[in-house]
Write a structure and sequence with these properties.
A six-stranded mixed sheet has the order 2-1-6-11-8-9. Strands 5-13-12-7-10 form a five-stranded mixed sheet. A two-stranded parallel ribbon has the order 3-4. It has one domain: Immunoglobulin-like. The protein has helices at about 110-115, 160-165, and strands at about 5-15, 20-25, 25-30, 60-65, 65-70, 75-80, 90-95, 100-110, 125-130, 130-135, 140-145, 150-155, 165-170. It is mostly beta strands and about 200 residues long. The structure holds copper (II) ion. Copper (II) ion (CU) binds near residues 14, 92, 156, 158 and 161.
């Protein structure tokens, strides 16, 4: 693929021995209040490293709806780093939905700082994956072409890490590029569960 013009940097961090909070670029992601694909999300506020809420700063963990926007059918590179202990016990299996990506390089941050590649700068015949292990204290470079419009989950596949914040939404294209929901598809605002007067009403 052509050399991507845009590189996004993502720093993954599990805080503390028990990883009570995890984050990407200092953002511990919260859950969006609505399904983004099936209903209007214009009232939902989003954040990313370039657009943090006013109550966030670089010295504290930010809790917000982490979303990164990509244009449709462009080449991108994601440069992932983990600031944990080199060779530490916890590496992060990072999964990106919606696209297979090329793994260009991976290794330790020390190797990268010394100008070395990890397993090699594999631009000629890179392996294609949808999940890659981000080594503790290491890095991964991946590339892909964003031709699949939608909201795609990007997250650590340790379920616990994912639930306490190590996740983001990758929005590819605009809403008009995405398949619309069926007519009259229910949304979060118009479903009301029935209220029963007594247990016998339910039978
Ligand atoms: Cu993880």
């Amino acid at each position: 693929m052509k050399l991507p013009k845009t590189i996004f940097f993502f720093e993954f961090l599990a805080a503390g021995d028990l990883a009570i909070v995890t984050m990407i670029n200092n953002i511990s992601a919260t859950h969006t209040p609505v399904s983004l694909l099936t209903q209007d999300d214009s009232h939902v506020s989003f954040c990313n490293a370039d657009n943090l809420p006013s109550n966030c700063d670089r010295n504290s963990i930010c809790h917000c709806n982490h979303l990164v926007e990509l244009k449709l059918c462009k080449n991108y590179e994601f440069f992932l780093t983990d600031s944990g202990t080199p060779g530490g016990a916890v590496s992060h299996p990072i999964h990106l939905h919606g696209v297979g990506f090329q793994v260009i390089d991976m290794g330790t941050l020390e190797q990268y700082r010394n100008g070395q590649t990890g397993f090699g700068n594999s631009t000629k015949l890179p392996v294609v994956k949808d999940t890659v292990n981000l080594p503790s204290g290491g890095f991964v470079r991946l590339r892909f072409k964003s031709c699949n419009p939608g909201y795609w989950f990007f997250h650590c596949h340790f379920e616990y890490h994912m639930h306490v914040g190590m996740r983001a939404i990758i929005k590819v294209g605009n809403k008009t590029d995405m398949v619309p929901p069926p007519p009259n598809f229910p949304n979060c605002d118009n479903f009301f569960a029935p209220v029963y007067e007594s247990c016998s009403d339910q039978i």
